[in-house]
UniProtKB/TrEMBL annotation:
PANTHER family: CARBOXYPEPTIDASE Q, PROTEASE FAMILY M28 PLASMA GLUTAMATE CARBOXYPEPTIDASE-RELATED. Pfam families: Peptidase_M28. Residues 1-23 form the signal peptide. This is Carboxypeptidase Q.
């Protein structure tokens, strides 16, 4: 069903479900509904993500492409009415993939499709060694000390479970983060793993691995799902499998940056609502769904609010974070941490009312998650009245942590909200060469903007205080 039809069909039901709200909220809710509808008709999200991915392509953290894209995005914000636009740099260890290859050399030659894991060191030539297969990280950890000396560790934990909320990703990303160090601890010369994705395409998913004592301990690769199947079958036949690996990946010193722009509040400008996404991407695709779309959604939502005819009371701040994707040898090289350090240094942390992050592609939003104290509150009921007509339900699950970018704010005590997106196909594309603009559905992208715009207006033009709300309480209005 198209969104315009769904909007008309659902409006009456939404109004019947919504608990009546306090009279003084009626004007704010009505304006939120008008802003929602304006976003459904027209917004700049598709224009932004089209220009970003076309002009700059992939934007690895710390690369010239990321830096140039950030400068362009700052100009884009200025052209569309944002104020206080600035770029805040921070130091970073960058990483370049270089050239990589892999093949089975025995018992019979076969090609393999791999991608080096982010910040993995190069192989310094060619590594050729026998492969030892494990079906879990736990099995690798249980291997005897030095049992992998001179060998390649391979974990095939099976296909990622496809879930709407993306929860199948965690078990495989955990292997990607901890596997190289575990393999090195057993004496291995390299590490490979089944690609962390829900697809069966011959297209590996990259992603960062973990620094241990200031370094990634050995060359590490993800293996495309069909190739992982092939390798596991071959080992299962009792063959001794020997693999050749090569990579020229290397790190370098550079900088990344956060791009920040405000829609300044009319009466309480020092009270800030942060809308976050990240500018950097992996190098295999063009970073359309991860996370060009998130920047498009949050920027467009703020612009729709700014053009609604009246500024909200509070300031809406869009932050395009740098360096979300990559691990670092210290905790200084990520955009979320850099933003937190800057607002703490300026004594502005307490001014942050709430933060939300869009970093799960561009498919439709289906649920609203609020901080624990806002669950079952008047505010949640008002939000339901605005969001239900576009297919967004109030979730009984609270939002506690936000995403990677706003996570530091959450840990510092800033309340967070979540607009849960349908991630059913997200991990088919995530961190692959298939993360390109054509994968964005414009109608679903528009629904995202409408949901963000309607909800954020409700927050920005109210005096709801998520910091002081406790479970079971209702906010002051």
């Amino acid at each position: 069903m198209r969104l315009s039809v769904r909007l008309l069909a659902a409006s009456a039901l939404a109004l019947s479900l919504a608990t009546p709200v306090l009279a003084q909220d009626a004007a704010t809710i009505q304006r939120a509904e008008r802003i929602r509808d304006a976003a459904l008709r027209e917004n700049i999200a598709l224009d932004y993500v089209t220009q970003l991915t076309t002009r700059f392509g992939a934007r690895p953290a710390g690369s010239k492409a990321e830096q140039d894209a950030s400068a362009w995005a700052a100009d884009y914000m200025r052209q569309h009415g944002f104020r206080n636009v600035r770029i805040e740099q921070f130091p970073l260890v960058g990483w370049e993939r270089g050239v990589e290859s892999a093949s089975i050399v025995g018992p019979r030659p076969q090609g393999l499709v791999v991608a080096a894991l982010g910040h993995s060191p190069g192989t310094n030539g060619v590594i050729e060694a026998d492969v030892v297969r494990f079906d879990s990280l736990e099995a690798l950890n249980a291997a005897p000390a030095s049992s992998l000396t001179g060998k390649i560790a391979f974990i095939d934990a099976g296909q990622m479970v496809r879930m709407q909320d993306g929860s199948g990703y965690g078990p495989l990303s955990r292997i990607r983060g901890a596997g190289p160090a575990a393999a090195a601890g057993k004496g291995a010369v390299a590490f490979i793993m089944r690609s962390a994705g829900s697809d069966e395409h011959r297209m590996p998913h990259t992603g960062t691995t973990r620094y241990v004592e200031g370094r990634v301990p050995l060359p590490a690769f993800s293996l495309a799902a069909p190739d992982a199947d092939q390798l596991s079958r071959l080992i299962g036949l009792g063959e001794t499998v020997r693999i050749s690996l090569s990579s020229t990946a290397h790190t370098y010193e550079t900088v990344s940056q956060n791009v920040i722009g405000d829609i300044v509040g009319a009466s309480r400008p020092n009270e800030v609502i942060v809308l976050g996404s990240h500018m950097d991407s992996w190098d295999l695709g063009t970073g359309a769904i991860d996370d060009g779309a998130g920047g498009a959604i949050t920027l467009a939502a703020a612009k729709v609010i700014a053009e609604s005819g009246r500024r909200p009371a509070r300031t809406i701040r869009v932050v395009l974070y740098g360096s979300e994707e990559v691990a670092q040898p210290t905790n200084t090289g990520n955009g979320g941490g850099a933003y937190l350090r800057n607002v703490q240094a300026a004594g502005q942390l307490e001014n942050h009312i709430v933060a939300g992050e869009s970093d799960f592609g561009a498919d439709r939003i289906y649920a609203l998650r609020l901080s624990p104290g806002a669950q079952n509150s008047d505010f949640q009921r008002a939000a339901t009245q605005v969001l239900y007509p576009i297919g967004v339900l109030a979730s009984g699950e609270p939002e506690l942590h936000g995403g990677v970018d706003i996570g530091p704010l959450a840990e510092a005590g800033v309340p967070v909200f979540g607009l849960a997106q349908d991630g059913t196909r997200y991990f088919d594309l995530h961190h692959t060469a298939d993360d390109t603009l054509d994968k964005i559905d414009p109608e679903q992208l528009t629904q995202n903007v409408a949901a963000w715009a309607g909800l954020v207006w409700l927050i920005a033009d109210s005096d709801v205080n998520f910091r002081t709300m406790r479970p079971g309480e209702t906010p002051a209005h």
